[in-house]
Amino acid sequence: ARATHVVATCYESEEEAAGRGGAARSIRRLRDSGAEVVFSVDCTKLKEHFAPGRREFDRIYFNFPHCGRKAGVVKNRQLLAGFFHSCAEVLAQEGEIHVALCNGQGGTPADQPRREWHNSWQIVAVAAGAGFILSHVHPFKAETIDGYKCTGYRSQDKSFCVEGALNHIFTRSTAPLCFTSMSCQTQLGSQKVSFQVPQVLVDKINRGFLDVNSSHPVRTIKEKLSAGLSQAFPLQNISSCLPLLQQGHPGGVCHSNIFWVTLSPGEAPGTEKMSQGLADAVLCSHFGQDTGENVQEGCPAPKQFYLRPSLLPHAQAIIKKGAFSPGTLQVLSGPVFRKCQISPHSMPAFHEMLVVLAVSRGTENSCIQMLVDNIKATMNSLHQGISGVKPSISLQEAATFGTGLSDFAAFERQLGEIQHFLCVGTEAEPPGSCVGVIRTAPGELKSHELVVVSASLNLDLLAMLLCGISDWRMLWARDRRFLRQFPEGELRLFKSFSLYPPSYVHDVSFWLPDGEDFDEVAFHTLARRVSGEMVVSIRLRDNFQQPGTGRRSLCYRVTFQSCERALGCREAAEMQLHLREEIQQHLGVTLR
C-alpha cells in the first residue's frame, strides 16, 4: 500500500502560531510522526505553496473555517468560494475535500435545525461554483480524535460549540458537456444516410445502453423480462438494425411532440430508392389511424424525416411483410424520442420494449393475462432482490383511466387505440405510475382467424421505480459513479452521489404574438437545449390579458438544478439570460 504523507498548513507564520497555547507541542508531534508542517499558507492560493509535482492531494481537510472575529455569512461564503477554487488546482482527480462546519452553518437538510438559506454559508452552492458536489455528510465527532480541541472563537483562544457539527465531503463533478453539432448515420430503406442530431439529443444518441456488454439497469430489466417471457412463449428478438428515422406525416400524432431532422446534403433518397424496403424505412402512415389532417402552416412537409417516437410502426411493418410467425412472441427494443414538457418522469428519450404476438381470435384476453402475469412475476422477483418491497402491478382499462395522464401515457394514446394501461405502485401506495400499454389489433393480419396483441413497456420508468431513482436524467449520467452501483448488471437501490444539489429560481415573462397560441412543448424543449437538461421544472405563474388591447402575457418560473453535476449560481444565471434570448428569437414572443 502507498505510504500516507500528511501536510499540515497554517495561515500564520511559525513564530505567531508557536506562541499560542499548546501549538508548539502539536507542531512537534506532527513533525515527529513524519508529517510536513507548512506556515503562512493562504487556503485560497494553495497552488502558490506547492510545486506542480506536489499538487495531487488525495484528501484536503478544513475543519471549521472562519474569516475571524465577527465576520458574517457573506464573508465566510467568499472564503469558502476561494478555498474550493484553490482546491480544484491541487486535488487529485478522485480526491476528496472534507469541510467541518458547526451545526446550521452549511445550510443543508442535514443540519438540525436547519437555518434559513440566506442566513447560511450555502456550502453546496459555493462548492458547485468550483466544480464540486457534496457526496457524503456525517457527524463531526471531536471526542474521537485524540488531543483535538476546538479553539479560535472570534480569533481568541476560546473554545466554541461543536455539538451537532457536520463533516461535508466533496468530490469532483463531471465536466459540463460541450453540446457541439453532431451527425449520425442510420439505415433508411436500402441505403445508409446521415442526419443532423437535434442538439437536445446529442448526448442521448448511440449511448449503447442495450448493447451486449452494457451493465446499465435498462438492459438488465429488458433481459430479465425477455427471459421470463421465454418461459411462457417461443421468443424471437428482432431489435437489430431498426432504423432511427421515419418518413412522412405522422397521422394522429401532434407535430410539436416530434423531433424533425434534416438529412445531410445530397443524401436524401430518391423515390425509386425509397420504394425499395419501405417496411424497413417505416413510413409514418403506419401510425394508428390516419386522421386526414392537413399539414399546418409552419409544419414540416410530408416527405421530411423524424426520429422514431415509437417502435410500433416497425412491428406493423414486419407484420405486413409477412415475416411474422403466429404463436411466437416478437421482441423489439431500442431508444425512442419524443418532445415533452419538463418533469422528473417525462423523458425526451427512453428505451422501449415492445412485445408482439399473433393469437387465435377469442383468446386475446387470456393471452393478455398471461403476458401481464409473466411481467408481474419478473418484476416481483427483481424488486424483492433489490429492497424486499413487493411492487403492485395492475391492468387498468383505458376507458376508465383517469385524466391527467403522464406524458408517456398521453403520447401512447396518440399512436392508436389502447385496451389497457400497465401501472406500477408499492404495497404502501396504490398503482399510479403508467409504465406500459397493451393493444389489440384485429385488422393487422390478412388472416381473419388471428389477432395481434402488443405490449409496449417504458424500460427507463421501470428502472427508476425498481432502483429508487427519482429523476430520469440520472439514467443518462456520464459520471462513472452511476454505473458502478450496478456491477455486472446487478440491480440495486440507487444511492445518490450528489447530495442536496442547489436549485436556482428565475422568472421569465413575455407578451404573446397577437392571435397565436403558445406552444408549451416547444418552450420546454428550448429550455432543455439551452440548459443542457439543467432545468428541473417550469411552472406557469401568471396568465394576464391586457384590458382594451386583449394582448396576453405569460409568466413562467424556471428552476435550474442538476441531479448529478455541479451547477453554480453564475452558470444558472447565464443559462437564464441565454434562454430569454432564445425564446424571443425562436418563439416570436416579446420579453417584458
- Overall 3D geometry? elongated
Under CATH, the homologous superfamily of the largest domain reads: Bira Bifunctional Protein, Domain 2
Give me the secondary-structure category.
alpha+beta
CATH topology of the largest domain: BirA Bifunctional Protein, domain 2
Number of domains: 3
Kindly report the oligomeric state of this protein: single chain
- As laid out across the biggest beta sheet, the strand order is 9-13-14-18-17-16-15
For the biggest sheet, the summary is: 7 strands, mixed
Q: What is the share of helical residues?
A: 10-25%
CATH architecture assignment of the largest domain: 2-Layer Sandwich
Helix tally? 14
User: From the alpha-carbon coordinates, what is the Rg to the nearest angstrom?
Assistant: 29 Å
Catalytic activity: tRNA(Phe) + L-phenylalanine + ATP = L-phenylalanyl-tRNA(Phe) + AMP + diphosphate + H(+)
Subcellular location: Mitochondrion matrix
Protein name: phenylalanine--tRNA ligase
Main location: mitochondrion
Describe the structure.
The chain is α+β, with helices and mostly antiparallel strands and 592 residues long. It has 3 domains: 42-172, Rossmann fold (3-Layer(aba) Sandwich); 182-262 and 303-484, Bira Bifunctional Protein, Domain 2 (BirA Bifunctional Protein, domain 2), CATH 3.30.930; 504-591, Alpha-Beta Plaits. Helix content is 24%, strand content 25%. The protein contains 14 helices and 22 strands. The strands form 6 sheets. It has a 7-stranded mixed beta sheet with strand order 9-13-14-18-17-16-15, with helices on both faces. A 4-stranded mixed beta sheet has the order 3-4-6-5. A hairpin with an 8-residue loop joins strand 17 (433-441) and strand 18 (450-458).
